[in-house]
Amino acid sequence: MRNRFDQQLDRHALAPLTARGVTTLQVNLGKLCNQACRHCHVDAGPHQTGADVNMGEEVAELVIEALRRGGIATLDLTGGAAELNPHFRRLVQEARDAGVHVMDRCNLSVLFEAGQEDLGAFLAEHRVAVVASLPYYRKDRTDRQRGAGVFDRSIDGLLALNQLGYGNGNGERQLDLVYNPVGAYLPADQHQLEADFKRELRQQFDIVFDHLYCITNMPIARFLEWLQRSGNEAAYMKRLLDAFNPAAVPGVMCRDLISIGPDGTVYDCDFNQMLGLPITGERRHLRDLDWDAVAARPIVTRDHCLGCTAGAGSSCGGVTAG
Amino acid sequence: MSSTPPPADSYYHASHVEGFAKIGEAKPDLAEKFFAWYGAAMGPGALSRREKTLIALAVAHAIQCPYCIDAYTKNALEAGADLDQMTEALHVSAAIRGGASMVHGMQMRDHHDALSM
Predict the structure, then answer these.
(1) Looking at the complex, does the CB of residue A283 fall below 8 Å from at least one CB of chain B?
(2) Are residues B78 and A183, on separate chains, in Cβ contact within 8 Å?
(3) With an 8 Å Cβ cutoff, is A163 touching chain B?
(4) Which residues of B touch A192 (CB under 8 A)?
(5) Is A281 left (phi over 0), alpha (psi -120 to 50) or beta?
(6) Is the CB of residue A207 less than 8 Å from the CB of residue A159?
């Protein structure tokens, strides 16, 4: 039986969902993180130190080879806390040398980890765009999702990045924030929330940033476990289904990117990576990828894909429609 | 017609919201007007979606409608409101309810004075 996402595609004559190129490499450097957030879809945390869940040198070299072959416009680094991986800085340097735009999905508190005191300066020097997760502009809601003390450290992180020239709107040092709901509901309108975040962060802390991205919580992993424990799973899945927006489908991120796991396996997105669902075909590892085939591949879909097409749509770059 | 009648010892059922459109099985012309008007009133206009949702949430408490409280709590969150804003809306609702009772005290005083020597 076709999953509920594919059934919606059928209903709107949008099946099958296929890629239209590979302009972004989203690279997950592993599960090691200095935080352990409730919503985290990759189950990252401080305990995830093993070589089996974090990218090693061999795969990092394959990523660099992929960047050098051309065609990739953006390297999107994520984790865990990607910055804690020993190959993070080399990847940034190699990408910038190859003229590739680099985004670092940063949890902000990592800037204050032991050994990372120069991280902000490194990011600024290499013009790395920082995409920082901040669930809300108030302490109580942020700490409820991220853990006690995270809000204050995040504010300190944003202030430190502002001091380095981030978020001042000139595009040289881009600072974007990511919002996702703290619960079983869809995110609010991205433009209105961006205005709220800008006003509140400026008034309360004199913080500036460029854009706010609204991301829908995916019903997988740690968030799914919470949905099940709290009795919200059925209502949340129905909410995603009811809010299916065909206009959000063309812009879903999997059509333009591939997601590389710490072991070099290639996925359609970070969520499929978490679920262990690699791309279709025999050649699913970065070392022997058929790039032409990958650029037009059919996307592997499941029910959770409804999270990317609900309402205004959701991607790692925020809404996909409107 | 519903095949499973609700238990007789309970008046409210969350499933009633889901099946609300069935109200139009009788007098569909009137239901159609109601739903169109409802949608237009809650739709885009001079007030933001968040403002309309918070008004709806406040009214839901004033009329003590459990269906509306559930629905507009979720809607308020999805409109970007937080618990402080939602609670302020509740206080506004309660203040107006309380104020309405208090201001009727003027009628009490007038009548008191009319009856008293």
Answers:
(1) no
(2) no
(3) no
(4) 48-50, 80
(5) left
(6) yes
Q: What one-character-per-residue DSSP string does B10-47 give?
A: ----THHHHTGGGGGGSSHHHHHHHHHHHHHHHSSSSS
A292-310: per-residue pLDDT in tens? 999 999 999 999 999 999 9
Q: Chain B partners of A138 at a C-beta cutoff of 8 Å?
A: 82, 84
Whether chain B has a CB inside 8 Å of the CB on A187: the answer is yes
Judged by average pLDDT, the poorest of A88-102, A106-120, A144-158, A184-198 is A144-158
Nearest-Cα residue of chain A relative to residue B76: A188
Look up the pTM and report it.
Answer: 0.84
Strands of the A101-106 sheet, one edge to the other: A211-214, A175-179, A129-133, A101-106, A74-78, A24-28, A257-260, A266-267
pLDDT-based confidence at A53, cuts 50/70/90?
A: confident
H or E stretch covering A96 = helix A88-97
Q: Confirm if A244 and A252 have CB atoms less than 8 A apart.
A: no
pLDDT of residue A36: 76
Instruction: Return the ∠ at Cα A237 (arms to A232 and A240), rounded to 5°.
Output: 125
Element (H, E) at B74: helix B66-78
| CB hemisphere CA count around A13 (13 angstroms) | 0
CB atoms within 10 A of CB B98: 11
Average pLDDT in chain B: 92
Mutation target for A interface from B20, B50, B78: give the one with most A CBs within 10 A.
B78
**Best CA proximity match to A82, nearest among A127, A133, A38:** A133
Amino acid letter at A4?
R
Binned at pLDDT 50, 70 and 90, residue B1 comes out as: very low
What single-letter amino acid sits at A40?
A: C
Interface of B with A in 62-81 (CB under 8 A): 74, 77-81
CB–CB contact B82 A136 (8 Å) = yes
**pLDDT for A240 beyond 70:** yes
Minimal C-alpha gap between A133 and chain B (Å):
17
**Chain A residues within an 8 Å CB radius of B82:** 136, 138, 141
Nearest CA-CA partner of A69 in A27, A100, A91: A100
Contact B80 A183 (CB under 8 A): no
User: Which chain A residues have a beta carbon less than 8 Å from that of B81?
Assistant: 188
